[in-house]
Design goal:
The complex is a heterodimer of chains A (112) and B (114). Chain A has 112 residues and is mainly beta. Chain A has strands at 3-5, 10-14, 19-21, 24-26, 32-38, 44-50, 56-58, 64-68, 73-78, 87-94, 101-102, 106-111. In chain A, a hairpin with a 5-residue loop joins strand 7 (56-58) and strand 8 (64-68). Chain A is globular, with a radius of gyration of 13 Å. In chain B, strands 2, 4, 5, 6, 9, 10 and 11 form a seven-stranded mixed beta sheet that branches. Chain B has a four-stranded antiparallel beta sheet with strand order 1-3-8-7, with no helix packed on it. Classes of the chains: A mainly beta (112), B mainly beta (114). At the A-B interface, strand 6, strand 10 and strand 11 of A face strand 5, strand 9 and strand 10 of B.
């Protein structure tokens, strides 16, 4: 079965520190991969996506993600976290259909 | 372009009542999706439309749930005989119907069934 795993339910970082959120997927073939962010009371916003080509993907708000086929991973990174980055982050994957499977999310807490 | 809108934002109802939610997608988007999100979980796919045609339904969409998109524009999601287990955030998203195109999400409708 297709699945997306985000092993960390909560991540706490200090403002200015680097960030890495983990995502692993299980699909029959290389899926399309996405990272979304959800702030309280807001809809999900796409940070970045990977379809093919360069395995390092740049997104909005200074985020990037690296696709590693050998590890079935698509981890999200940011070199310096801002307090406004505190939110829920979702990794998602889709195959030939347009319907993504989402991970359960990682809650990012930023300490001043 | 005002984004995807959903109405109402919050709905409190008693068990056994029927509720209906509305989603207005981005105007040029031909695909529209409904998801359900419970606390501590990611969104779970319910159904999607391409124009007015409902192309796929999840097994999560029981017989008490029905969705329509009558003119290929706005969509409604109705839940009949609500149960406490229906309490969740219901998200709508829209996209242009090309592979991998970004889905734009609305703010959601939070349903509480007492």
């Amino acid at each position: 079965a297709q699945s997306v795993t985000q092993p960390d339910i909560h991540i706490t970082v200090s403002e200015g520190a680097s960030l890495e959120l983990r995502c692993n997927y299980s699909y029959g073939a290389t899926p399309y991969l996405f990272w979304y962010v959800q702030s309280p009371g807001q809809g999900l916003q796409l940070l970045l996506k990977y379809f093919s080509g360069d395995t390092l993907v740049q997104g909005i708000k200074g985020f990037e993600a690296e696709f590693k086929r050998s590890q079935s991973s698509f981890n999200l990174r940011k070199p310096s976290v801002h307090w406004s980055d505190a939110a829920e982050y979702f990794c998602a994957a889709s195959g030939g259909s347009y319907i993504p499977t989402f991970g359960r999310g990682t809650s990012l807490i930023v300490h001043p | 372009d005002t984004g995807v809108s959903q109405d109402p934002r919050h709905k409190i109802t008693k068990r056994g009542q029927n509720v209906t939610f509305r989603c207005d997608p981005i105007s040029e988007h031909n695909r529209l999706y409904w998801y359900r999100q419970t606390l501590g979980q990611g969104p779970e796919f319910l159904t999607y439309f391409q124009n007015e045609a409902q192309l796929e339904k999840s097994r999560l969409l029981s017989d008490r749930f029905s969705a329509e998109r009558p003119k290929g524009s706005f969509s409604t999601l109705e839940i009949q005989r609500t149960e406490q287990g229906d309490s969740a955030m219901y998200l709508c998203a829209s996209s242009l119907g090309q592979t991998g195109n970004e889905q734009f999400f609305g703010p959601g409708t939070r349903l509480t069934v007492l």
